[in-house]
């Protein structure tokens, strides 16, 4: 999965799921707030996405994939 796929996936997540993934992480909330205000940043890099958000997002995707 590349970064653009992650960004598009975050864009489609519902608000409650995003709040759950950013709970307790100020940097994650700030990143998503900026992301939703400005749209998809053209020059976003992996280093720009907070590590806790990547971890929580990948864990959520893993749970969804292996739910069946």
Structure explained in plain terms:
- By secondary structure, this protein is mainly α.
- The protein has one domain.
- Helix content is 68%, strand content 0%.
- The longest helix has 15 residues, at 51-65.
- The chain is globular.
- The two termini are 20 Å apart.
- The mean pLDDT is 77.
Q: Could you state the order of secondary-structure elements as H and E?
A: HHHH
Task: Report the sheet with the most strands, covering strand number, pairing sense and barrel closure.
Answer: none
The radius of gyration computed from the alpha-carbon positions, rounded to a whole number of angstroms, is 12 Å
- Strand % is under 5%
**Shape designation:** globular
Tally of domains: 1
Which whole number gives the mean pLDDT? 77
Tally of individual helices: 4
Provide the structure class: mainly alpha
* Terminus-to-terminus distance: 20 Å
The unreliable regions are none
Bin the helical content: 55-70%
Give the total of beta strands. Answer: 0
What is this entry, summarized?
The protein has 68 residues and is mainly alpha-helical.
Q: Tags for this entry?
A:
68 residues, mainly alpha, 4 helices, 68% helix, globular
Q: Strands, helices and their partners?
A:
Blueprint: H1 3-12, H2 15-22, H3 26-38, H4 51-65
